[in-house]
Amino acid sequence: MKKIYFATMLLCLFLVGCKPEVEFPTVVTKEVSDVTANSAKIVSSVEADGGAEVTSRGVCWSVSSNPTIDGDKTNDGNGVGTFISELQELMSDTTYYVRAYAINEAGVSYGEEKSFTTLAEDNGNDDGNDDGNDDGNDDGNGDGNDDGNDDGNDDGNGDGNDDGNGDGNDDGNGDGNDDGNDDGNGDGNDDGNDDGNDDGNGDGNDDGNGDDGVFEDKVITVNGVSFTMKAVNGGDFYMGAQKDDPNAPNYDEEAWSREAPVHQVTLSNYYIGVTEVTQELWKAVMGYNPSHFEGDQRPVEQVTWYNAKEFINKLNQMTGMNFRLPTEAEWEFAAKGGNDSQGYKYSGSDNINEVAWYSGDDKKTHDVMTKKPNELGIYDMCGNIMEWCNDIFGDYSSEPQIDPTGATSGSDYIIRGGCCLSAEEYCRMTIRSFLSPGGTSYGIGFRLALSL
Fold first, then answer.
1. Is-contact 135 111, C-beta < 8 A?
2. Predicted pLDDT at 198
């Protein structure tokens, strides 16, 4: 009996002694993205909890190396998985150091350090911009100028909403016949007979559309490679699809459950790539080519979400601009033809063969712009390759949305559009796919977006 007792005691002591100790969590600082003059986003991940619950996670940052949680930090919840931290109120044209952290009962663990430099402030004094100081500008200070409070003021769109604050509403697309309009031709007085040519082209007139005073397509050249960004006028549309009510908006008998509920979305003006990012452009920025189907004018593929963000960061450094991935809402609105939408099933046609390379062809990518464009002049949004969006995947809300940016947490990112490997039914414009940000395929690439 004593032998059994002592054997039992030894076994208990052995088991206690072998109980695994709690280790520090494993945390990774993955990516710095969407850097502006005063903000940035940091993608991080808690890969393992170390054997105990992660009670806090986030990022810490400083203008000095090796930031800690004793200084500036975010708190982005708990647990394992990918998370995004948003840094606000940063100083412009300043280098910051950042690293992720995670806390469990063992203590604090830090990810590797990354650095980034915020953009310089835009002083708003480019030609054609309304800085409120040029002769004939709409400065809202009376004296025959439009103070933004009259009901007959000309915003160039026919609705009289030029509030004199440089917000981008006077774009010169109206008929110029509203009483009290500011034609911006030297004295701020409107004779009521102008033809809508208040376009901000070098005379200080205000169309409020950013760096060159005109909201139109942009052609950008990087290391000898040019690409075009399409100007998309914002507006309202119904996003998603449903198969329950033929009389309700966006009925589609092929709709998946995650395409619902259909909901109203309002978008601001933005730019989106006329084509997917080509291998030629990728090589001009990154210096190598990861693609399976090689060809300069074919879309780049076999790139992860992180790879796309790295490309964008380098492109922004080279151009001084603020490129990004499109949001899911921006992608769908552009694919549907924006305000010019004709209600097609695919992007630009009801006949998929006119507008998309898909599995009905030879199951490989093709040069961009070899099929018909959609209503906006944008190519390949339903085929060739699927495209990363900026959003974390999550369920839609039924509530109306203004410039939505997707879920605030989750482990997967949105991919939109069909590809050269997709069956026809998977090339519809409302199909929602998703993948881990580290995942890749020779059917996945991306398209650029750009804010005003």
1. no
2. 39
Q: Give the strand pairing for 401-402 and 263-267.
A: parallel
Structure tokens at 316: 């922004």
Could you tell me if 239 and 260 are in contact, meaning their C-beta atoms sit under 8 angstroms apart? no
- Residue 3 DSSP symbol: H
Integer Cα distance of 171 and 270 in angstroms: 14
CA distance 156 to 158: 6
Q: Identify the CA nearest to 447 among candidates 297, 272, 293, 255.
A: 272
CA 301/CA 279 separation, integer angstroms: 8
Stretches where the chain sits below pLDDT 50 are 1-19, 123-212
Question: Which of 166, 110, 169, 176 lies closest to 140 in space, CA to CA?
Answer: 166
CA–CA distance, 307 with 162 (Å, rounded to integer): 41
DSSP 8-state class, residue 96 = E
Residue 312, exposed/middle/buried by CB under 10 A (0-12, 13-18, 19+)? buried
Residue written as tokens 């909201």? 215
Domains 26-117 and 218-450 share a fold: no
312-317 contacts at long range (C-beta below 8 A, 24 or more positions apart): 312/33, 312/448, 313/32, 313/33, 313/35, 313/116, 314/285, 314/286, 315/222, 315/285, 315/448, 316/35, 316/119
Q: How far is CA 428 from CA 138, 207, 242, 265, 393, in A?
A: 45, 36, 13, 19, 18
- How many angstroms separate the CA atoms of 324 and 332, rounded? 16
CATH topology of domain 218-450: paralog of FGE (formylglycine-generating enzyme) (3.90.1580)
Q: Give the other-Cβ count within 10 Å of 150's Cβ.
A: 17
Q: What is the pLDDT of residue 14?
A: 40
> Closest Cα to residue 263, out of 402, 382, 391?
402
As a whole number of angstroms, the distance between CA 73 and CA 80 comes to 18
Confidence (pTM): 0.57
**Cα(306)–Cα(377) distance, integer angstroms:** 28
Pick the CATH number of 26-117 from 2.60.40.10, 3.20.20.450, 3.40.1160.10, 3.10.20.600: 2.60.40.10
CA distance 60 to 432: 33
User: How do the domains of the chain map onto residue ranges?
Assistant: 26-117, 123-210, 218-450
How far apart CA 240 and CA 399 sit, in angstroms, is: 13
Residue count (the chain):
452
Sign of CA dihedral 327, 429, 409, 291: negative
Beta bridge partners of 415: 388, 433
